[in-house]
């Protein structure tokens, strides 16, 4: 990627007030399809803490807040974070908080963020995170950094990670690219390999389009054993 993190953050801040019209209005069928699948697969319980990485204006975070105990949104763009905070306040949603955080350093330590993007969040190891979600954001990282991001997510030890994004089910150089410059999708195979390497079992692969999908990864270890939505319904 030839754009710095700061430049990318500024670019999103400039479009933050228009982002919802394009993505949250229900008029973008592909976006709706994978965003809905991310929410559906995240499936939080009332006591779960959910971390939404690349939360943007909080479309996914706010959708999950009704069912989750608490939702924490992290993003690099102050403008997007401001929109997310305004929407939460307008809707009277109190169990969400939004703040600065990067995929490879989410700056979540379990405390509620007071609002400043300068607030240091350096130690994420002791924070409790049950479910990590990320929708249409990981593609901003080149593949090697995607790997580092997934390693950082695994370090948080969530029971589940749900990733919706541009991803290639077929050729990584399609004849008719769905997305333009700035969307650096990975192959599904690469993402599944990395998720498996860091200790997740990939339990669902949803193909929305040949270049878009949703992956559900669950911890393989005993403490975070897989508990499918069907299992939970029958308990
Ligand atoms: C296309 S928006 C998606 C927002 C939201 N998840 C949604 O589904 O509507 C991508 C977001 O990822 C954020 N982003 C890009 N690179 C990031 C990084 N390295 N760490 C955290 N957020 C990042 C951008 O600032 C932007 O808000």
TrEMBL record:
<keyword id="KW-0808">Transferase</keyword>
<protein>
    <submittedName>
        <fullName>Class I SAM-dependent methyltransferase</fullName>
    </submittedName>
</protein>
<keyword id="KW-0489">Methyltransferase</keyword>
<dbReference type="InterPro" id="IPR041698">
    <property type="entry name" value="Methyltransf_25"/>
</dbReference>
<dbReference type="GO" id="GO:0008168">
    <property type="term" value="F:methyltransferase activity"/>
</dbReference>
<dbReference type="GO" id="GO:0032259">
    <property type="term" value="P:methylation"/>
</dbReference>
<feature type="domain" description="Methyltransferase">
    <location>
        <begin position="50"/>
        <end position="155"/>
    </location>
</feature>
<dbReference type="Pfam" id="PF13649">
    <property type="entry name" value="Methyltransf_25"/>
</dbReference>
<dbReference type="InterPro" id="IPR029063">
    <property type="entry name" value="SAM-dependent_MTases_sf"/>
</dbReference>
């Amino acid at each position: 990627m030839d754009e710095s993190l700061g430049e990318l953050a500024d670019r999103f801040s400039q479009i933050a007030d228009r982002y919802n019209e394009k993505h949250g209005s229900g008029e973008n069928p592909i976006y709706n399809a994978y965003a809905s699948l991310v929410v559906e697969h995240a499936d939080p319980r009332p006591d779960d803490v959910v971390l939404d990485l690349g939360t943007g204006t909080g479309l996914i975070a706010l959708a999950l807040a009704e069912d989750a105990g608490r939702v924490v949104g992290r993003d690099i763009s102050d403008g997007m974070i401001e929109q997310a905070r305004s929407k939460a306040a307008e809707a009277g949603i109190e169990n969400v908080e939004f703040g600065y955080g990067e995929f490879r350093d989410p700056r979540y330590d379990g405390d509620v963020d007071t609002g400043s993007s300068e607030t240091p969040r350096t130690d994420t190891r002791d924070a409790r995170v049950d479910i990590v979600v990320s929708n249409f954001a990981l593609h901003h990282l080149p593949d090697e950094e995607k790997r580092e991001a997934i390693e950082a997510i695994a370090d948080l030890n969530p029971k589940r990670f749900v990733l919706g994004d541009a991803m290639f089910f077929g050729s990584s150089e399609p004849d008719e690219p769905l997305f333009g410059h700035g969307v650096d999708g990975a192959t599904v195979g690469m993402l599944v390999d990395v998720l498996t390497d860091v200790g997740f079992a990939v339990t669902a692969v949803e193909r929305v389009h040949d270049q878009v999908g949703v992956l559900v990864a669950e911890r393989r270890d005993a403490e975070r054993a897989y508990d499918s939505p069907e299992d939970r319904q029958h308990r």
